[in-house]
Fold:
Amino acid sequence: MGKQGAAAHIVWDWNGTLFHDNAAIIGATNAAFAELGLEPLTLERYRELYCVPVPKFYERLMGRLPTDAEWEVMDDTFHRYYAEHRVTCELTEGASTLLADWRSAGRSQSLLSMYVHEELVPLVRGFGIEPHFVRVEGRVGPSGGSKAEHMVRHIGSLAGVDPQRTVVIGDAADDAVAALHVGARAVLYTGGSHSRASLEGVGVPVVDSLEEAVEEAERLMAA
Structure:
């Protein structure tokens, strides 16, 4: 049984979903690869291979898991490069309007990202969209893991939100895994880290725009 009177709720992903940062992500990934002498990736190749946890992504490219020392170097390089280049990135087309419209309709939404919390919050605030969310939450602790346990804590912290009336909108298979882990549903967007083919293998709705994502979320909530 769901919570009595629980309203529809969206949990948004940030990187690759609301925040169109593909160029910074690919640049940072290639900068990290260069530290180990790996060949650079195109966006298309990145989308074909990317997976979570991130060390498994590196294993697909290297033929083995990185050592702890290699992971530390690559992770530090990635985040340093990304921090420098994210300033040129913008919100995904239509994101601001969709967030405002959802809030204006009296429905709630939150943001859960695996991007480090202390950097996420001022970034979201800088775009002027923070008031649209009942909670903005980034990663606290080491990088490289799944979003599933973070989703458990996130949903548990939201008063009046029923997982059965919640849809997670993200760009990665891990967003769907996290949604299913708490009993929510998911819609995956093709504009970020995964190819359409890899997303379609997850078994949840896949869309090509955030507008379609919201429409699909509404359909799922009404079912």
In short: Residues 68-85 form the longest helix (18 residues).
